[in-house]
């Protein structure tokens, strides 16, 4: 790590505290714990970078490897994030998805195995959520601008015009030829609701290939935890959607967690909150929920990511049903800040902050 990493990192942490949905509570930053009696001392190495429009944090705990060796692996991990960002971008000219979109209504486009795999998975979640998550939601590209100052609402006519172009059923995937075809001109696919989760999985695979088993990888609201931080567990928390602080601590490991919140990218106009999770039925931000945290016991972050977006759009009742169907756990916080938990979770309310665990550990 660079000599000034510590100072930079603290800055990034402060930014990320306000950005991410499920927050990682760290005891101390980047220091080694006292040595275990006989084994080599525990090294805890962490680094953070802004990529894919969010903050990425990787923390590794190891008794076996030197800090330098871990730092080298982590540099490769950040390179991997950049690679996937370039691969799966839909708006950068020349990317595979950009080609698919510019050939909408014209002809199928052949893509790499990797892109095809993520698109297939996004299609799967479009199907099981009956279009609450819709890989073709990008037809609304440019309609909603959450960075504009002062904020303005889109023209309702424009939303009405584009809405029929959101329809994953008009997307043809041909696994044999590995081609993707959008059947109508103006249709667009985008992986904004699943790409970060997939990238978390890539980073974890890279860490594992390098013999690292105890880690915490966080890309905005998507994360995976594995093993422990020496003798202590990794600690995650679900953020309060409307103020500083946490609603729940998560005492979990070897799982993937994804949070979608209406506080991540939004503006408020005439007392109404407009955020970045869009209901494909209306073309407007989904109503009724303020945050969804999905826990995937099978530790696939890609699936958890798509599910948190899908469940957010579906709302409490249908969202809980989909979680059960896909065998994932979750916490849905509605717009009145009431929480709904799936049956596989238990809560210890005697703790200072209610602490959530899986009834059956994976
Ligand atoms: P974040 O990107 O903040 O982690 P999510 O995982 O919930 O949040 O994904 C939100 C992103 O997913 C949006 O920024 C957009 O790119 C995309 N998206 C929004 N609505 C939908 C939808 N209904 N179906 C699929 N993707 C969506
Ligand atoms: Mg998501």
Short description:
The protein is α+β, with helices and mostly antiparallel strands. It has helices at 5-19, 67-88, 96-102, 113-128, 156-162, 195-209, 301-314, 316-325; strands at residues 22-24, 43-51, 54-62, 109-110, 171-174, 179-182, 215-219, 222-226, 236-239, 246-250, 255-261, 266-269, 272-275, 289-296, 329-334, 339-341, 345-348, 355-358.
Note down, in words, how this protein is organized.
- The protein has 362 residues and is α+β, with helices and mostly antiparallel strands.
- The protein has a domain at 5-65 and 212-358: Roll (T-fold), CATH 3.10.520.
- Helices cover 29% and strands 25% of the residues.
- The protein is built from eight helices and 18 strands.
- It has helices spanning 5-19, 67-88, 96-102, 113-128, 156-162, 195-209, 301-314, 316-325; strands spanning 22-24, 43-51, 54-62, 109-110, 171-174, 179-182, 215-219, 222-226, 236-239, 246-250, 255-261, 266-269, 272-275, 289-296, 329-334, 339-341, 345-348, 355-358.
- The chain has an eight-stranded antiparallel beta sheet, with helices on both faces. Strands 1-9-10-18-17 form a five-stranded mixed beta sheet, with no helix packed on it. It has a three-stranded antiparallel beta sheet with strand order 4-6-5, covered by helices on one side.
- Helix 2 (67-88) packs antiparallel against helix 6 and helix 7 packs antiparallel against helix 8 (316-325).
- The longest helix has 22 residues, at 67-88.
- The chain is globular and about 65 Å long.
- Residues 1-22 and 26-37 have low confidence and may be disordered.
- Bound molecules: adenosine-5'-diphosphate and magnesium ion.
- Residues 133-134, 137, 190, 192-193, 196, 220-221, 260, 264, 276-278, 280, 305, 308-309, 313 line the site of adenosine-5'-diphosphate (ADP).
